[in-house]
Amino acid sequence: MTQYLLSVHGSVDDETPTDEVVQQMYADVGRFNDKVREAGKWVFAGGLEPITTATTVDATGERPTVTDGPYSEAKEFLGGFWVIEAADLDEALQWAKEGSAACGGPVEVRPFNPA
Amino acid sequence: MGSEDTSPVLGADAVATVVRAEYGRVVAGLIRRFGDIQLAEDALGEAIVIALERWPRDGVPPNPAGWLTTTASRKALDHLRRERVRDEKYAEAAMLTDDTPPEPTGPVKDDRLRLIFTCCHPALAEPARVALTLRLLGGLTVAEIASAFLVPETTMAQRITRAKAKIATARIPYRVPGPDDVADRLDAVLAVLYLVHNEGYLSRGGESADREDLALEAIRLTRALRSLAGDIGSPPEVDGLLALMLLSQARRPARIDDAGRLVTLDEQDRARWDTGLIDEGHALVRECLRRGAPGPYQIQAAIQAVHTDARDVSLTDWGQVVALYDQLLRLRPSPVVALNRAVALAELDGPQVALAVVDELELTAYAPWHATRADLLRRLGRDDDAGRAYAAAIATTPNPAERAWLASRRDRLGHGWGEGPGTP
């Protein structure tokens, strides 16, 4: 078994969804999460607060700095993620397809380094 | 492995041919056994070095694939023994130790089928899929693949290395996809074989007009896929692709003249076509029609079948060709298909009608679009416009044989040469 990160990416250009859409998404993601747990593939998952709440810390210089805002100025940002167990990439991609349909966003799949 | 039971001694070139023919199934078996593409390739590479040294001297063993598998397996086990960090894999592989020669059927076939699905996995970029397929299943060297696709060898080596690393770290599985995915995944495999064949049919560069080795390699792999497909049911599109390749290959002796110049379909000496390949291609097309599940490759094969059915260009059933292009356009709308349809339409309804269709297509970066326009303008007696269109076509194509052919067409303007469709 390998652990995979299934990350959901949003864009600042995305339109704000209606309450109805948001409620539906919560319900769909809840059902998907249950399915992952029942299959014994669940490690961890979570949705993140908006990118405007991000703070960046950099302790690589002489003195640590704390800055308001995301690390990257890119338009795309991490919105949430799952960490799952899967036998191989095909299984991880299958979960990602269902996860993407549930949360209504594209999902990036990356294996964790086992070391 | 003694020399007493070997076949007659062959030259180094013949030995290299044997090695290439066996490469795919041997490496596929090694990958299954050791679960590591790099290790399998390295071990087989060492076995091949020994084969190239011994076989020309002692003769090729009766079962070259078995010999290569046994020798490479020993090399792989040596590697694993030396690399103690791989203790676990060594234990696994040692348990699977099996020195019996591979059977010509059964699991050996499955190994190659598994490998082609791994090489053509959608998680790999298409250029990487093509390169990996040629490297692992076709047994081509990195240098050969790099030269076929006009990229520096280091770039191609990097592309292949990166793809293999992704297969290992992201754990792209080594198996035939399940029934839910197999149709989509097979499409990806066919697309790779089609690309390899196209590159062979009209190379983008180099000195020669085509790369016959690539075209033949694509045919060989498609034949292998078709014989393997028994396990997953042979889809008609596999037969369609094979027929398309065979009917293109059949025309090769007439497509390029003794000076290496391209000869267009209308001017080809049809007596030089390979009737054996045509018969095989036509039989496949008839079988596809009988099954009644048309797809893009089958339709393109059917178009080739109409052309190769005509003993003289004047006997071509252009109405049938246009109808098939209409069907293809409905399945796969594309300006290139529309252009090819227009070439046939010119024969059916005349150059004026065809030119109106061609001028609507947005293909100014595509040399055949300029060449088709040039030919239609020439046939309408608009030699000045035709000359400009030929110049545009020459400026757009990277293929030297095609450039030479276009220049000769342009030079003929105003001399009243024969009529005919204008693309090679």
Automatic annotation (TrEMBL), chain A:
Residues 18-111 form the YCII-related domain. It comes from the Bacteria. Transmembrane segments: none annotated. InterPro entries: Dimeric_a/b-barrel (IPR011008), YCII (IPR005545). Belongs to the YciI family. This is Sigma associated protein. The lineage of its organism: Bacteria, Bacillati, Actinomycetota, Actinomycetes, Micrococcales.
Automatic annotation (TrEMBL), chain B:
The keyword Transcription regulation applies. Residues 20-84 form the RNA polymerase sigma-70 region domain. The keyword Transcription applies. GO terms for biological process: DNA-templated transcription initiation. Pfam families: DUF6596, Sigma70_r2, Sigma70_r4_2. One of its GO terms (molecular function) is sigma factor activity. Residues 116-167 form the RNA polymerase sigma factor 70 region 4 type domain. Keywords: Sigma factor, Transcription, Transcription regulation. InterPro entries: DUF6596 (IPR046531), RNA_pol_sigma-70_dom (IPR014284), RNA_pol_sigma70_r2 (IPR007627), RNA_pol_sigma70_r4_t2 (IPR013249), RNA_pol_sigma_r2 (IPR013325), RNA_pol_sigma_r3/r4-like (IPR013324), TPR-like_helical_dom_sf (IPR011990), WH-like_DNA-bd_sf (IPR036388). SUPFAM superfamilies: Sigma2 domain of RNA polymerase sigma factors (SSF88946), Sigma3 and sigma4 domains of RNA polymerase sigma factors (SSF88659), TPR-like (SSF48452). Residues 185-287 form the DUF6596 domain. PANTHER family: BLL6612 PROTEIN (PTHR47756:SF2), BLL6612 PROTEIN-RELATED (PTHR47756). Belongs to the sigma-70 factor family. ECF subfamily. This is RNA polymerase subunit sigma-24. It comes from Knoellia aerolata DSM 18566. The lineage of its organism: Bacteria, Bacillati, Actinomycetota, Actinomycetes, Micrococcales.
